[in-house]
Amino acid sequence: MKTYTPSRAPCPIARAARVLGDRWVLLILRDAFLGAERFEEFVERLGINRAALTSRLAIMQEAGLIRRDPPEGKRARYILTDKACALEPLFGELADWGAAHLFADGETPPQWPRSDAVAR
Q: Which residues, including other chains, have CB under 8 Å from residue 19's CB and lie 6 or more apart?
């Protein structure tokens, strides 16, 4: 299982990339911003295997991006922390960039909901 080791790089982008540079972490955060909270919701929405999701959720907890409620047992909710919520503008910018540059002519990209519409 992957584990999280904070970066000691002098560059803030390198430090952010240590935790956010994983495709699954970005997609888990996206779905959490859009209202997913339960393990099974993430599995269903993302098509991620259970071991990979377990690993990424543990990394995200260690990095302080989500908290598990309750901390032990089944049926937990995974809740975004203030640290993760501070990333919402970045997700808006990333969605805008993807919409502007990664869709073919005639394709209509979905709109990222702005701060007031994103679930917390």
A: 4, 6, 25, 59, 60, 63, 65
Beta bridge partners of 27: none
* Model confidence, pTM: 0.89
Residue 50's pLDDT is what? 97
- Please list the residues that pair with 79 across neighbouring strands: 67
Structural tokens at position 106:
């005639």
Please give the torsion angle defined by the CA atoms of residues 101, 20, 25 and 94, in that order, rounded to the nearest 10 degrees. -20
User: 38-77, pLDDT tens digit by residue?
Assistant: 999 999 999 999 999 999 999 999 999 999 999 888 889 9
Residue for token pair 């394709």: 107
Between the alpha carbon of residue 11 and those of residues 14, 65, 87, 99, the distances in Å are 5, 20, 18, 28
Radius of gyration of the chain (CA): 15
